Structures are given as structure tokens and as C-alpha cells.
From TrEMBL:
NCBIfam families: L9 (TIGR00158). Residues 146-183 are annotated as: Disordered. Belongs to the bacterial ribosomal protein bL9 family. Coiled coil: none annotated. SUPFAM superfamilies: L9 N-domain-like, Ribosomal protein L9 C-domain. GO terms for biological process: translation. This is Large ribosomal subunit protein bL9. The gene is rplI. Residues 13-40 form the Ribosomal protein L9 domain. One of its GO terms (molecular function) is structural constituent of ribosome.
Length: 183
């Protein structure tokens, strides 16, 4: 069944696009909720005429979407989450949390235009922000453990070794044991 969409539906299509859907989905959901109409020959002619008249508005919306997408270039999100000993998060990191983190950085984005799988482990993932039909931004999302200490850098690991070598008694101290275990 061909349907003309009346609004953007992530995963299906964008406003004024003709899409093929299963009969039940079109008749029982899209048409009754006003999200689509049947793509009859007369509806297709009306759509073509509307698109001609709205070409300037569509170009302005696309330019605005590209400007908003430019704000996200180079942005990487680091989200701290409570994590178990096995690296699994308590709960999950989802689009609402990503939208909150972007808001903290001063970028207001609706969570409805963000798509990603729910994150349930520590690691680096990718979220996609759909601004307009051809304007999408891939956003890297890194989930870190908030209840575990940060890994030591090499400089911090070398300092205990230097202190351990200054020990004149010849006994192995706790500092030396930690340094040898770190290596």
C-alpha cells in the first residue's frame, strides 16, 4: 500500500514522501492518526503541486537543519553511568540521557530525532541525530563507569617506582609491590 506521509516518522520516512507499507499498518495506524493518506493519483498530483509551492520553505528548513548539524560537528559525549563489576550498567543509556547531556553542553535537541540502541555496557557507541531528510549527524557516545577509579597515567605509575628505589633497607615495601604489579 502506498502512503503519502504527513509528518516525519523516524525509520519509515519524512513528510511528503511516498512510502510502501503493509496494508494493516497503513489502514490501522497511519491513516486514522493523520500521519498519512492513501497515495491515489489525485493525491500524488496535489503533492507535486504543494511541493512546487513550498520549495522555498523546504530549502529554508534544510538550511536551518544543516546549521544545527554543524553545531554537533566535533561533539563527543562522555556519559558516566553506575556500572557493576562486570562492566554492565545499572539501567541503560538511552536517547533521553543523550538529549540531557547535549542540553548540558548548550545544544537543545528533541530526543525523538535521536536514534540509537539502548546502551547497557561500558564502551564507545554511536547515536544518529536526524535533523532533516538528508541531514543526519553521527554522534559518538562513550559510556564510562562513574563508581570506579580512573586508570592511572604512566607518569603516576612511574613515581611510586622512584620512591620504592629510594628505600635503603632492602625490604620490599608495599609501594614496590604495587609498582611491580602495575607493570
Amino acid at each position: 500500500m502506498e502512503i503519502i506521509l504527513k509528518e516525519d516518522i523516524i525509520g519509515l520516512g519524512y513528510k511528503n514522501e511516498i512510502v510502501n507499507v503493509k496494508n494493516g499498518y497503513g489502514r490501522n495506524y497511519l491513516i486514522p492518526t493523520g500521519k498519512g493518506v492513501i497515495a491515489s493519483p489525485s493525491a500524488k498530483k496535489q503533492l507535486a503541486e504543494d511541493l512546487k509551492q513550498q520549495a522555498a520553505k523546504i530549502a529554508a528548513r534544510k538550511a536551518e537543519a544543516e546549521k544545527r548539524a554543524a553545531q554537533l560537528s566535533g561533539v563527543e559525549l562522555v556519559i558516566p553511568a553506575k556500572v557493576s563489576a562486570t562492566g554492565v550498567t545499572y539501567g541503560s543509556v538511552n536517547t533521553a540521557i543523550v538529549a540531557e547531556e547535549l542540553a548540558k553542553k548548550g545544544i537543545e535537541i528533541e530526543r525523538k530525532i535521536i536514534t540509537m540502541r539502548d546502551i547497557k555496557k561500558v564502551g564507545t557507541y554511536e547515536a544518529t541525530v536526524h535533523f532533516f531528510k538528508d541531514v543526519e549527524v553521527k554522534l559518538p557516545v562513550t559510556v564510562i563507569a562513574e563508581n570506579q577509579p580512573a586508570p592511572q597515567t604512566e607518569e603516576k605509575a612511574e613515581k611510586p617506582v622512584e620512591n620504592a628505589k629510594e628505600n635503603e633497607t632492602g625490604e620490599t615495601t608495599a609501594i614496590e609491590q604495587e609498582a611491580s604489579a602495575a607493570e
